[in-house]
Design a protein that fits this description.
Elements lengths: L6 H20 L6 H7 L14 H8 L25 H9 L2 H5 L6 H4 L1 H5 L3 H19 L6 H24 L3 H19 L7 H9 L1
Helix pairs in contact: 1-2, 1-3, 3-8, 4-10, 8-9, 9-10
């Protein structure tokens, strides 16, 4: 019997999801195609029906909710309304939330994988840049300044969110990591002029931290 419509796209999505979890947890080099396919509930041999190589798969894993409308943040109790007027503040709070900090397997790939990207080829670096540019574009929507200064401000806020979480995860002390996240969140909100914006996510963050 032929497979139902959408079967291939469904299987492909399962492979990407398995790879995302494993790459985020262990890094690109430490994860085998066999492990990825086992995580997707499939045999090793089926991989090459969907991807040319592990590097080819890696470029898709680098996508996240900034570029893929079907990929939602999986951080428990945290959500982002990409159509909201205060989307910039929501992104900052979600990105630097304790929930995102704790959920390594479902991290935004820009936090978990930058070291792998640096050692990879042009295609992977291009995918990383695409995700970063999409994050910057969303942050720009909530800024009051205009022109080049608006883009530069959004770039700085995005880098502060990503870099802040990378450094926080490298810290031995959980308290120091929380302090750094909260400091980066405060400065990022201040840069965007969003320090007065309050959402349920902000209240939950203060309670959770």
């Amino acid at each position: 019997m032929p497979y139902p419509a959408g079967h291939r796209s469904s299987i492909r999505a399962k492979i990407v999801e398995s790879a995302r979890r494993l790459f985020n947890r262990h890094g690109f080099e430490s994860v085998s195609v066999k492990q990825i396919m086992a995580g997707a509930g499939m045999t090793h041999g089926a991989f090459y029906s969907y991807f040319d190589s592990k590097s080819d798969l890696y470029t898709e894993v680098l996508g996240c909710f900034f570029t893929d409308p079907n990929w939602k943040p999986r951080w428990e109790g945290v959500s982002v309304d990409l159509g909201a007027d205060d989307v910039g503040a929501q992104i900052v709070r979600a990105y630097l939330s304790r929930q995102h900090f704790d959920d390594v397997e479902n991290s935004c790939p820009m936090v978990a994988l930058p070291g792998d990207v640096r050692r990879s080829g042009r295609a992977v670096k291009g995918a990383f840049e695409t995700v970063f540019a999409a994050m910057v574009a969303m942050l720009e929507r909530g800024l009051s300044c205009s022109g080049r200064s608006k883009t530069r401000q959004a770039q700085a806020i995005a880098a502060l969110c990503i870099g802040g979480l990378v450094v926080a995860r490298a810290m031995r002390s959980e308290g120091a990591a929380d302090e750094l996240r909260n400091a980066c969140m405060s400065i990022a909100l201040e840069l965007g002029g969003w320090q007065r914006a309050r959402t349920g996510r902000g209240r939950q963050e203060r309670k959770h931290a």
